[in-house]
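Sequence and fold:
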Amino acid sequence: MLLKTGVGLGVALAGVGVARATLADASPTEAAGQRNKELCDQPGDSASQQGLGSGDLGIPYYREHDGTWGYVFGDSWSGIQQTGTYLGSPVMLNQDHFDASGAAPISFTWAMPTAGQARQLFDYRTKADNGFGYEVSRIPNDCIEFGGRTYIQYTSVATWEPPAGYDGSLMSGVAYSDDYGVTWHDYSYHWDGDVRGANQSLYGMWSFAGIDPDGWLYIFSKRWNGTHRNTADGGAIQLFRIQPNDFRDGNFGAQQNWAYLDGSWKWTTAAAPSVILSGNDTGEFSVKRIGDTYCMSYFDVKLGAICTRHASRPDAGWSVPVPQITSVEVPNLYGGYIHPGSASASSLTLIVSQWNGVLNAPPYWVKQFDGIAS
């Protein structure tokens, strides 16, 4: 990935070349805590006890109202290996305590939307027109809770097999819950996708970096590439920020954009966000403030690896990408979400998905990796 040059961002880094060299030369990350630990798709495991046999993504977030943890899955089934009842997407499992040391693996203790069996959170029909056009499924990209409200940013998928140069999305939106995940509502504003005339919208996939001590909610976003088939993705990532109260009110037009304008980088409402990172096609990505460090992980589609980077601030220069988990260790991997409860920026917990693309064939699960140095 290439770091754009500008005031506040430092010197451009030839990230793609560095990443390729690093992948060839890197030794495996030093093992710490859990590594390659399956969290679902195993008979009798904690996920199946909550009604989820198999699922992917497992995006972690902090439930600040009671100090527990949530994990948001994409397309999920009641049985292992995508068997049994199709539950839909998104689906949520919760955990009462997360062990950041990695001594104990993640174990799920209840499901949403109630304490009973897991089921689809949002009220919509899959493989149907729900008023926006035909959509296959709504895939979560990130989740955050603050001020008594929970938010999930999602992409509505029009096709999992887009033609070259198209991203295959219908639209993106933000859903919210005022009862911590039991019932969900959609904000009225949606960001049009591919089949609604906005192919390659940089608002397709979001990651909530969190509310900084300066009071702003920082959000990174990129083109939809959950299919890993978007040949025009180009790894482009943008950055914007918004006051939490404006976000809660759905006043998305109040965002400030990190943009290169009039010869310098600045926060502004006078221009759209500029691309700050680009390079290899990327799939799922995650940015979180861990301690005083901003950490990023993402699936590099071309390298077949989960890579990480870090920065002192959201709008500062990002470190050279480091491949952490490769397809040699985990074939057909993707995802790579940073756990916000990670021990430190030098000891991250990542949630990684694995699927070979064949329905009803193993594996279709998420795995826990601890001790990752960003």
Remarks:
- DSSP finds three helices and 29 strands in the chain.
- Confidence is low (pLDDT under 50) at residues 1-31.
